[in-house]
Amino acid sequence: HKKGAREYYDRLVQLVSELGLREAVTFIGSVPSQQIPSTYQTHDILISCTHMQTWGIAAFEAMATGQLVILSRTTGASEVLTDRENVLIAEPLSPTSIRDSVKELFTDVSLCQKLSEQGARFVREKITWDKYAEAMLELFKQPRKKEHHKKEVGEIAARRKIYYK
What we know:
It is a single chain. Strand 1, helix 3 and strand 2 form a beta-alpha-beta unit. Strands 1-2-3 form a three-stranded parallel sheet, with helices on both faces. Helices cover 53% and strands 7% of the residues.
């Protein structure tokens, strides 16, 4: 997996160079957690157009700082966000859709203002550890049949090589 990721990264760096975009594109790598907010604030847009990614916290981190975000429709975060209200959602695997979204952000100041404000508000109100804890407590309170629970725990334990009696 790491070898494939490294090869992909190398191809992207080469493509940026070939297209003459070294001044416009930054590959920042790993960022210490205390520097994350300031790192987002020094960039114009977070583009996270991965295909079939589960949740992905980067979009919410960026939105919390007021950063503009473009997501692919197939990222998990897009399921709870609203296109053109708090994020721009691009079509998956479509460079044209991503390009059009970027162009729109560079030309529509009122849309940028709206997405920045509404995105930060959404994260502040909906994506908090307290909200997550409340949701988990509600899940744990739901009654379960003992047989179903034992089977489910057994399946999880088997996947994680944990033994359950």
